[in-house]
Amino acid sequence: MNIKVNFKKQVSSKSNANLILFADEKFNITGLKKHISNSEYSYISDILKKKDTKKKIVTFDISSKKKIILVSLKKNLSDSDAENLGAKCHVILDEFKETQYIVNSDTLPNRLKNILGYFLHGLKLKSYKFEKYKTKKDKGDISINIVGKNIPDNKDQLKFSSIEKGTFYTRDLVSEPGNILHPDEYAKRIKTLSKFGLKIKIYNEKELKKLGMNTLLGVGQGSIRGSYLVTMEWNGSKDKSKPLAFVGKGVCFDTGGISLKPAKFMEDMTYDMAGSAVVVGLMKSLALRKAKINAVGVVGLVENMPGGNAQRPGDIVKSYSGKTVEILNTDAEGRLVLADALTFTEEKFRPKFIVDLATLTGAIIVSLGSEYAGLFSNDDKLSQQLIESGEHVEEKVWRMPLNENYDKLINSKNADMQNINYVGGAGSTTAAQFLQRFILNKTPWAHLDIAGMAFSKYGGALNSGGATGYGVRLLNKLIEDHYE
């Protein structure tokens, strides 16, 4: 069910509507007396003596028509704790299938009166479902009316709403099948975001050839679909400060090309464009909330197919930077897309920093599973900011090594470099080491390998399985805390 939140000051919580109320960590409910009837108060008091109050959320069936959900809030509740409670509350609402609830914000302890926005944010993030292609959809919405004085102000409401819309847009893009969201369609969808104030420029194959973006073009040359580079500019700062740059890998479907992947789980390769989707969702969020910064998003959109014109193992291509690459494996394609995109972004926009995101290597999943994204960077300050932002929103990153000693693993006898390490080992690091070679002017740069984070088979704290939208909230927090 979708969640619709309405802020209403005058609705009485003593009505027959289902209620969501708050208590302290010990489930002390004396503060609820003026918000519920005497009989309800007595009933809840009696039940609490017998209930397992180790749980943070306890439910009560007051009658066949009324339920009360009681949420306990610990003393040192963090923003992410509140989001997780909201997500757990959504699981309960989804089970109940009731359609109307009242949240009484006046039952929040005074020390936590600003926490409601995060609670509702978690509840809404958890509610996402991708049902576009189901003939029988989950019917109905859950309407939540917020009453009382402790509601988020208009600025916070806009912030949470913009992040939700950006995250959901990212999840929608990642969830689309490859026959629908191919590069041609993807470029068109990004173009529609100009209505939010983003300046969109789409470079087609003819323009990319003229620019010399042969590593990007080589990946897509086996497909009947076009290959594109798309830039999205947001100018929210009054000065002409350098923009923050975000670059994403957009391989809309990855067969592996001539170096064909095994059939098992190849269907998951629809999400090999998740890095680009994060960049697109982030740029939408920044535009919606009128972020007071200058930012640019750059995405390379291709489809990696084993066609008659496909790139071959052994081919040598010249990148936009002028450096040459020997293609030893066509399934190491994401780094080729990013190589041209990174150099182009650095040269054209001269940004304050560049953060790229990509579902780049299976090796990062071996290293970190689905708990952390791999962080590789040439800058300690930017790395620390990303680590702190990730901890705050629980989209965590773990810094991995870069070192010139790894260069020998990707040096080629026939070109400046090769696109894989054939010796074996350090798969994620050598991929990042490859990317670093295309940062030419010492711009602070960070690479996030999100292969283990972009898609979840079993769901997570703030998502119900499928596309996670990982990265939108992380990068928004980075901007909010350090650059805005």
Outline:
The chain is an alpha/beta fold and 484 residues long. Helix content is 33%, strand content 21%. An eight-stranded mixed β-sheet has the order 7-8-10-9-13-17-14-15, with helices on both faces. A six-stranded mixed β-sheet has the order 1-6-5-2-4-3, covered by helices on one side. The protein has a three-stranded mixed β-sheet with strand order 11-12-16, covered by helices on one side.
CATH topology assignment of the largest domain: Aminopeptidase
Mean pLDDT: 94
Poorly predicted runs are none
The global form is elongated
Percent strand equals: 15-25%
Number of domains: 2
Largest sheet: 8 strands, mixed
Radius of gyration: 25 Å
Q: State the CATH class of the largest domain.
A: Alpha Beta
- How is the largest sheet built, in terms of strand order? 7-8-10-9-13-17-14-15
Task: Give the secondary structure arrangement, pairings included.
Blueprint: E1 2-7, E2 18-24, H1 38-50, E3 57-61, E4 67-73, H2 79-96, E5 100-104, H3 116-126, E6 141-147, H4 154-175, H5 183-191, E7 199-203, H6 205-211, H7 214-220, E8 228-235, E9 244-254, H8 274-288, E10 294-304, E11 316-318, E12 324-326, H9 334-349, E13 353-358, H10 363-368, E14 373-377, H11 380-393, E15 397-399, E16 417-418, H12 427-436, E17 445-449, E18 455-456, E19 466-467, H13 472-482
Parallel strand pairs: 1-6, 2-4, 2-5, 5-6, 9-10, 9-13, 12-16, 13-17, 14-15
Antiparallel strand pairs: 3-4, 7-8, 8-10, 11-12, 14-17, 18-19
